[in-house]
Amino acid sequence: MAFRNVAIRVFFLLLVVSAAFAKDKEEKKEDKKDEKTEGAASEADGTYDITKLGAKDDGKTDCTKEVEEAWASACGGTGKQTIVIPKGDFLTGPLNFTGPCKGDSVTIKLEGNLLASNDLAKYKSNWIEIMRVKNLAITGKGTLDGQGKAVWTKNSCAKSYDCKILPNSLVLDFCDDALIEGITILNSKFFHLNIYECKGVTVKDVIVSAPGDSPNTDGIHMGDSSKVTIMDTKIGVGDDCISIGPGSKEVNISGVTCGPGHGISVGSLGRYKDEKDVTDVTVKNCVLKGSTNGLRIKSYEDAKSPVVASNFHYENVQMDDVGYPIIIDQKYCPNKICTSKGDSARVTVKDVTFTNITGTSSTPEAVSLLCSDKKPCEGVTMNDVKIEYTGKNNKTMAVCTNAKVTAKGVDKANSCDA
Predict the structure, then answer these.
(1) What are the φ and ψ backbone dihedral angles of 40, each rounded to 5 degrees?
(2) Interacting residues of 16 by C-beta distance below 8 A, sequence separation 6+
(3) How many CA atoms lie within 13 A of 241 on its CB side?
C-alpha cells in the first residue's frame, strides 16, 4: 500500500514537471516568434508602420529600405495586411512592390508624404512600381511628391523619340481590383499615375497636380487595361489630364475637373506597331478649365499598324475657356517629329457621341473634326452642343474635314453644316 502511494506521488510529480517543461518550451517558442516579428510590425494584426522599422520623417534620410521591408512583410502575410505611412516627410529612392501576395489584400495607408529622390542614377525606370498584385488599396490624405521641378529641364522628349524617359511616380502593372482613394500625387518627374495591363482599377477623390508648363507630366495614363473608373478627381498638370492609350476598354470617367493640362484624351494612337483597339469609353459630368484641349481623340497619320477607336460617349461636360473643346485629330504630329507621308487609313475613328457639351472656348475653333481623307470619321453624333468663343474679333466656328456627322440641337456655330 505504501509502495502504491509513492508510485502515485511520483506519477503526479512527473506530470507537473512535464507540464512546466512544455510551458517553458512554448514560451521560448513565442519569444523567438516575437523576435522575428519585432520591428517588422507595429501590431500583431498585420499592420506595418514604417517608423517602427526605423524610417525617419525628416524628409532627408533615405527610407527606401524601411518601406520595402514593410512591403515584404505585408505581401508575405496572410489575411488583410496594412502598411502605414504616418504623418511626416519620408524620402525614398525607387520602390518595387512585387506580388503576387499571400494574403487577401494589401492596403497602403498614406497619411504622410513620400518624397522621391532626385538622384536619377538610382532609377532604372519608375519611382513606385507595383506589379502583379490583386486587391490593392492606396488610401489616405497623404502625398506622393515626385519633386520633379529639379529635373524637368533634363526632359528632351519634345525633341526626340529616343529620349530618356524620366521616372513615372506611381505605376500599376498587371494589377487587378485596385483602389486609389483620397491621396495627392504631386509634381511627378514624368507621368503621375500609369496603369498598364490592369483590370478593375478605381481612382476616387484624388488630386493630381503639377505646373501647366511641366513637360510630359500626364495626370493619369492607361494602356492595355479594362474596367478603369476615374471619379470625383481633380487634375491639373502639364500634359493630358487623362490619357487613354491603346488597348484600353470599358473606361468610365465622371466628376473630373481638368485644368491646366491638355484635356481628356484618347491616344495618341498609331505611334507603335501592333497597338490594340480602344473601345467603350464614357466621360460624364466633367469640367475642363483653361486646358489647351477639351475632349480629344488623337492619332498619327503615319500609324505603324491598324487601330480602331470606337464607341465613345461624352455627356454633360462643361468647358471654361478651353483651347479646342471638341477635337478629333487624325493628323496628330507633336513638335514636328513625325511624318505625314504614312498610310493615314490605318487608324479608324467611329461611333463617337457628344451630348450636352457647353461653355466657352479660348480659340474660335470650338469644334475641330480633322479626320483622315482615306478613312473619314464615321458615326459622329452631336446633341445639344453649344460652345462660344470668348474673343471679340473672331466668330465661333466648327472646322470639319472628312467627318460624317449627325447633329441635333447644336448651336449653328458649332455645326459642321454651318
Answers:
(1) -90, -35
(2) none
(3) 30
pTM of the model: 0.89
Which residue in this structure is represented by grid cell 521616372? 167
DSSP lists the bridge partners of residue 48 as: 83
Strand order in the sheet with 170-173: 95-98, 128-131, 170-173, 193-196, 220-223, 242-244, 264-269, 293-300, 324-332, 365-370, 397-401
Q: List the Cα angle 185/187/191 in 5-degree steps.
A: 75
ω into 268 cis (within 30 of 0): yes
Q: How far is CA 101 from CA 126, 221, 414, in A?
A: 21, 25, 53
C-alpha grid cell, residue 180? 486609389
**List of residues 6+ apart from 80 with CB closer than 8 A:** 46, 103, 104, 105, 107
Give the sign of the dihedral formed by CA 150, CA 154, CA 157, CA 162. negative
**Unique residue bearing C-alpha cell 512583410:** 73
Instruction: In whole angstroms, give the CA distance from residue 374 to residue 342.
Output: 11
Query: Catalytic residues, which ones?
Result: 262
**CA end-to-end distance (rounded Å), the chain:** 120
Please state the φ and ψ torsions of residue 102, each to the nearest 5 degrees: -80, -30
pLDDT in tens, the chain (418 residues): 444 443 444 344 444 434 444 455 444 444 444 443 344 444 557 999 999 999 999 999 999 999 999 999 999 999 999 999 999 999 999 999 999 999 999 999 999 999 999 999 999 999 999 999 999 999 999 999 999 999 999 998 877 777 889 999 999 999 999 999 999 999 999 999 999 999 999 999 999 999 999 999 999 999 999 999 999 999 999 999 999 999 999 999 999 999 999 999 999 998 888 999 999 999 999 999 999 999 999 998 878 889 999 999 999 999 999 999 999 999 888 766 666 555 456 899 999 999 999 999 999 999 999 998 888 999 999 999 999 999 887 899 999 999 989 999 998 899 887 5
CA distance 226 to 197: 8
Of 235, 230, 236, nearest in space to 248 by CA: 230
Q: How far apart are CA 390 and CA 367, in angstroms?
A: 14
Q: Do 343 and 372 meet the contact criterion of CB atoms below 8 Å apart?
A: no
The span from the CA of 96 to the CA of 137, in Å, is: 16
